[in-house]
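pasting input
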Amino acid sequence: MGETMIRLSDVRFRWRRTDPLVLDIARLEVASGEKIFIKGRSGSGKTTLLNLLGGVASPESGAVSILGTDLAALSGAQRDAFRADHIGFIFQMFNLVPYLSLIDNVTLPCRFSAARRRQALDRAETLEDAARDMLLRMELDVDALSGRPVSRLSMGQQQRVAAARSLIGAPDLIIADEPTSAIDAELREAFIDLLFQEARAAEATLVFVSHDAALESHFDRTIALADINRADLEG
Amino acid sequence: MLILSIALQSLRNRRATVLLTVFAIAVSVTLVLGVEKVRTEAKASFANTISGTDLIVGARSGATQLLLYSVFRIGNATNNISWRSYREIAERPEVAWTIPLSLGDSHRGFRVLGTNHDYFRHYRYGGKQELSFRSGAQFDDLFDAVIGADVAETLDYDVGDSIVIAHGLGSASFTEHDDKPFRVSGILAKTGTPVDRTVHVSLEAIEAIHIDWRGGARVPGMQVSAEQVREMTLRPRAITAFLIGLDSRLSAFAVQRYVNQYRSEPLLAILPGVALQELWDLMRTAEAALAAISVFVVVTGLLGMLTMLLASLNERRREMAILRSVGARPFHVFALFVTEAVVLAAAGALLGLAMLYGSLQIAQPIVNTHFGLFLSIAPPTLRDLAVLGVVIGAGALTGAIPAFQAYRRSLSDGMMLRT
């Protein structure tokens, strides 16, 4: 513990050379094991920041490093592999591949990452068992749900499946992008509690992005994106 | 393996459109293979019809026309050969045997061929196969007829049945030689050639049924009964064509030249192989047109697939983003679309092949009775497999179009869609 999970230094990003800057962050550090709340409205550069952290987008200048690895030093394919190995994502909604089964949706990261597969299999006989286990931890009744297409699950259930997927194979970092905005208010707290509990069990760092300041109190620390992003986004 | 399994599940999820797309490709594949099948079978059947004959001689007309009416019973002769000329040529030293052919009458849609016993002795088809009898024997009596296998089968004839020959061709002829009925003396075994669809009688019989006819109609007041005609000496005055077998094939050109320069009447001698080749040349344009149409039908099938894949691109953006977030590379996204296209094309190709065999099963007897063409049901040829391969390959190339778009989008979208 105590080591740095995420470090951004002098990161600038724009979509096209002629576009204005959308992100300009002098410094952002997240320690390993931290539960951090990044507060930001849509349009505050949130999407860009997540794409940068995932290694899907590259900054124009500056460095993004995760677990001490400078993403810019990796090739595209290596960044994809790095993401698969170390990061679990939960999005706002429509997290699931509609045609894959409940179990297949959860095991998906293990198909693209040998490391995640290995770690999942350390704890279970098969990947299916690992997925089942993860879903049970997210308090989902696998047997009752697995008969139907995942798109028929309720929004709250879908988000919990997404959480199970982000956690399977114990990645080091969980990035959740407005994961609760589509669920009913009364289920929100329960979802966050579950997520916390499992992230802690997996010793994962949690980066939670939301505009909902009411959730702030659950976290170790809050960073307001508007405060650290020097890019002028008001147009 | 991973991408294939994802692709299969994705396709299964879109069953309805997928099945239609596969069916469209399958229909096009069936058409391509079917056209090719009919083409090669027709060629093979033509090539198999005559074997061992060195020259065909008829009145001077076109080589193709002579070949068609003398061997394939298609079309008509424009003129006859006099018996005298026939005998003169037949008695040349190079000539081993001849088969005289006299055409012009029919029996319920089947052509009647006047010939002699040399026909059964010397006529060869396929790989030099002889004609053989399924039942009965050659014509012996004046009013005996030997019928081909298809004639017997279609009209349900047996040895001993009585048949009436019509003057001229066509199944609804009003002028029949009903005063001189024939008796079926033999039925030939199936050959898969026009022989199956022919009624064979002796040259004398042809002469006998026309003895009281002139110029296509009965001579009024002249009635020669079947009994009377038996008493007469019947010598054929003319025949339609004849086949020649030579002692040595080397003399074929010499005999051909002799016939073509024959003084007393204009005659034409053709080498069957050369005439057949001319026929193929004639048909080449039609074949090319058919082939082009089939290719376009395949293109249409693949365009249907392209439409389906392109239409799904937008609704699948989210799915691509999810795959990217769990570690899929843009290449995986590309491969997913190409794999889906290949699976669709391959399923279409295989279904098309199955449909070909299904329709062959149904069409075989119908085509055989109506066109005298026997479509054999054989395992796919190398060319068929090549066609399937090309369709699948073209499917992959077509799939590369939406795949490339999805690839580019997933590069720019990343994991988060900018909306």
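fyi The mean pLDDT of chain A is 86.
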